[in-house]
Amino acid sequence: MIKSIFYVSQKTVAWPDDGPDVEAITAVATSRNAILGVTGALISTDHFFAQILEGPEAAVDDVMASILRDARHRSVKVLADGNMRSDGSPSGPWPSRGVHRRSATT
Ligand SMILES: Cc1cc2nc3c(=O)[nH]c(=O)nc-3n(C[C@H](O)[C@H](O)[C@H](O)COP(=O)(O)O)c2cc1C
C-alpha cells in the first residue's frame, strides 16, 4: 500500500543558524529515503518545515517515527495522512526534493 503524509513543524533553531541542521537533514533524507523507496519534498523557511512523504506504507511509517522523535523541530502537525492511489502505484520516480527559502533582505 502506498501512503502519503503531509505535515508542518516549527524549527527549534531558526534561520540563519539552522544551516547545519537543514544540510544534515537533507543528506540523511536523500540517502535513507532512496533506500526505502520514499519520495517527497521538504520545504524549509526561516522558522518552519513542511514536508510531503510518499512511499510504501511501512517505509513512510518508519521515517515518520524518526521524524517525530527529532529534536530539530517541534509542534509537528500532520495535515494529511492517507493512501494515494487505489492501484497502489507511486505517483512518479522523483527523488526527494528540498526547497529552502532564504531571506531576501540582508
Ligand atoms: C523536518 C525534518 C525532516 C526530515 N525528513 C527526513 C526524511 O525525509 N527522511 C529521513 O530518513 N530522515 C528525515 N529526517 C531525519 C530523521 O528525523 C532522523 O534523524 C533520521 O532519519 C535518522 O533516523 P533515526 O534517528 O531514527 O536513526 C528529518 C528530520 C527533520 C527534522
Description:
This protein has 106 residues and is an alpha+beta fold. It has a single domain (2-85), classed as 2-Layer Sandwich (Alpha-Beta Plaits), CATH 3.30.70. It has helices spanning 19-36, 57-69, and strands at 2-11, 39-44, 48-56, 73-83, 97-100. A five-stranded mixed β-sheet has the order 4-1-3-2-5. Strand 2 and strand 3 form a beta hairpin. The longest helix is centred in the first third of the chain and has 18 residues, at 19-36. The model is unreliable at 90-94 (pLDDT under 50). The chain binds flavin mononucleotide (FMN). Flavin mononucleotide is lined by residues 9, 25, 28-29, 32-33, 42, 49, 51, 53, 63, 66-67, 70, 72-73.
β-strand percent reads: 35-45%
Mean pLDDT: 87
CA-to-CA gap between the ends?
46 Å
Bound molecules: flavin mononucleotide
CATH topology: Alpha-Beta Plaits
| Oligomer classification | single chain
Strand order of the largest sheet: 4-1-3-2-5
Instruction: State the name of the first-level CATH class.
Output: Alpha Beta
Produce the secondary structure layout:
Blueprint: E1 2-11, H1 19-36, E2 39-44, E3 48-56, H2 57-69, E4 73-83, E5 97-100
Parallel strand pairs: 2-5
Antiparallel strand pairs: 1-3, 1-4, 2-3
The structure holds flavin mononucleotide.
Summarize the structure.
The protein is α+β, with helices and mostly antiparallel strands. 29% of the residues lie in helices and 38% in strands.
What structural keywords apply?
single chain; 106 residues; Alpha-Beta Plaits; 29% helix; 38% strand; globular; binds flavin mononucleotide
